[in-house]
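Chapter summary example.
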Amino acid sequence: MMFVELAWWVFLTPLIVLPFVAILEYKKVNAGALLSIFSVLVSLIIATGILFEVLGGIEYEEHYLALKVGDIEFKYGIFVDPVSAFMGFVVSFISLWVLIYSIEYMSHEKEKSKLALPRYWVEITLFVGSMLGLVYSYSLWQFYIFWELVSLCSYLLIGYWWEDPGNAGKATKALVMTRFADAFFMAGMVLAIFPPPLGAGTWDIPVILEKAMTGALPGSTCSILAMLLFIGCMGKSAQLPFSTWLPDAMVGPTTVSALIHAATYVKAGVYAVARFYPLFVHGSPIEIWGVSFTPLQFVAWVGAITGVWAGLIAITSRDIKRVLAFSTISHLAFIMFAFGIGAFAAAMLHIIVHGFFKALLFLDAGAVLHETHETKDLYMLGGLWNKMKITAVTALIGSLTISGIPPFSGFFSKEEILHAANMSSPILFLLGFIIAICSSFYIFRWFFLIFTGKPRSHAAEKAKEAPYIMTVPLMVLAAGCIIIGILNAITHVFETLFEYLPETYTLTHIKAHSTHEILPGFALMGLSLGIALIGILLNYSIYYVGKISPEAFTRPVILREIYKFLFNETYLDKAIYWFTMKCIAYGVARALCWFDNVIIDGVYRGLAWLGVHLSNLFRRPQTGLVNYYAVAGVIGLLALLLLFELWLLGIITFL
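The structure predicted for these 655 residues follows.
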């Protein structure tokens, strides 16, 4: 039996063991954790075998009919191709080391409640299994079920420490913001089942992609489906304007943050773009208010703007995890940007590179938090280089990787994306370039404030190296940051992998029409590397040597105001709150208040007025005098006799 035929077990293994994880962890600490880790190890072994088989040119799909309603078929199954094989390996490998790290990092939870650790291990195992199920899904409705399961798990894990109302509120915020975007994704899914030209006439992902690539699906339909699905991806991957939930999601355990940022939740958005890429490639131009653009151009611009926004904010943040959160937003945007300009293989390479260095940096932050009793303020840390040597060295490797310094992996993926951007529009190229160079400025500020200088708090003074069960995953991920880029540069393994995709899967307007470069290739490489090194040296001068004061950059009024604007995260969260609560919610409330007071209450007041006046009308004959009643009785009797006489004469008839 081939590994591709076992793809079911990549995601079913973590899902099947869930009840046993809960029971074992409840009975004995770490028993359920070991079962969870073993299940993900099985997933990794199968996913690795699948990846090697797909590198040999094998693709596989298997599906079954679950339900048929009229012409609508609900199929479920597995779809293994270069995209899913690649992502399955990334998710399972990174998740395994995060789970191993969690054994020690979450060990203190057993003191709080006997149910705390079982709940954590069940939720995080379900998280991994749901993401793997999404990756290998055969049909769109199956994809959507796992898409929402991933959202549920992130909600539960972000609000893991629910005793603090603020944590629960931020988990709810993440759920609500992404649900709004997911409504568009669901609309795209519903539209897809309609027959052409309105939809694709099926939910089978391979069939949808085939129809898009062969032209059986009209360009307009591809565009509509791509745009609806992409708005859902914007929510998942925290792209503007759905970005503010992700920094607030840092209230959960750091292991959860590492998993969300490196392998699961936010990676679901960029994976969905890769999965449905032919819809974007073959979509026809859309015109809104006189502005014409293709789905890919929309993806590129959203990524470019979001990446610059998040990268600049990360430079000013003081929180050890919020810096990394904005870094994630920026690099996810960089991946979206790469997809938008047609650099498909480069975008996929950056997905795995980002997964390694972001998991590494978050777990480094977790080690620091674990040993400094959750000290999150960068300005209350410092001096940890000699106290936490392994953590510091691996953090340095992660920082060099994210900065794009050779020979670390980030250099290779960054340069490939910038090379593709070099053949796009000058404005897009400039924005992409800014995203790339921002990384060294914010990450080495983060690194020097944590690990160099003197301890600036008692917690930092008393810190020591984390246990080996936490540092071994750091060393493995750090090794990945070094090896992946070099391996790909020598063997071109990822280019080979994605060459097995049909040419029409990734063919874009960039490849078809770009014949010029904005900058010569070597000049571009030298410029990006030079500015990255300047960012490192600048932070070295400010936070290590102390030759330059940070306040020097905020003395001019305009720079001080820019810093304040970025430090407050461009007030976007407040603007969204004002728009949603003060404008939309308040406007709806006022409209409902008017409807209630004028329409609903008006009807009841009208009925009351009518009742009063009718009662006054009928009350007047009720005088209480017998003679009046006698006269009325005689008059009534005469009226009846008159009617009877007229009936006898045939003048009137009764039905």
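To summarize the output: The chain has three domains: 1-208+218-230+239-284, 296-567, 578-648.
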